[in-house]
Amino acid sequence: MLITLLQALLYILRFSFGACIFSFLNVVIYRLPTGESITHGRSHCPGCNRTLTPIELIPCLSYLLQNRRCRGCKMKISGRYFAVECFGGAAFLYCGAFFGYGEWGILSLRALLAFTYLGVLTVIAFIDWDTRIIYDRFHIIIILLGIAAVWLSPEHTLPDRLIGAVIVSLPMLGLALAIAGAFGGGDIKLMAASGWLLGWRAMIPAIFLGLITGGCYCIWMLARKKMTRKDHFAFGPFLALGLGAAFFYGDEILRWYLAACNI
Ligand SMILES: [Zn+2]
Predict the structure, then answer these.
(1) Nearest to 123 by CA among 254, 28, 20, 210
(2) Listed residues: CB within 5 A of ion ligand 1
(3) Is 26 left (phi over 0), alpha (psi -120 to 50) or beta?
(4) pTM for the whole thing?
(5) Which of the residues 165, 203, 217, 248 could staple to 196 if both were Cys, CB 3.0 to 4.6 A apart?
């Protein structure tokens, strides 16, 4: 009984840790495009500018305890903050379950790499959604993760990674040059950096998942007349979705697909 309770407590702690990290990523998503300092300045309500008290900074819980509103000005707090924090907690547990925990019950290095990548993808997706910009610093972080992965995931050889870097990004670059505005430079760089991290096999399902989900979104927006054919939309969030799924299941999806086609 005591062991079960302690284990439950450990999982709650792990979830909370992941939620705290993603709570900080919420700050990055919100402040980076506005030029505000990420490390300085206490968190404040965007409505009344009131500095938030510690109780209002508890990831996931404070949103529910405050009934989704600011305690000062009663402005509705976007559910996105809550969703990102919950996703962070779930991502931490998922990476641990997938790649294992190391000593002291904290994430193994491979799980930590996966968790970091999911964090970077989340920031990229939301900033791109808000501003249609993908900052180069995130591509650099992904390349650094890829360098760490050379040791941590040796099943992907160097040629595998180098082909991964160009297999999707080069055709995208060709399309962007042929059709102005087909893809943004940030999207292409994201696929190049991620290909270096994931290896070429995972990149095929990644781009297909991105195109399918992005295409569905486009059709839905066109059908609701919220977008015209000439409008551009942020493709980064859909690429991030495809890349996140492909990071864990890319090789399997490709193998399954090839088997289903009898190739
Ligand atoms: Zn307020």
Answers:
(1) 28
(2) 45, 47-48, 70, 72-73, 75
(3) alpha
(4) 0.93
(5) 165
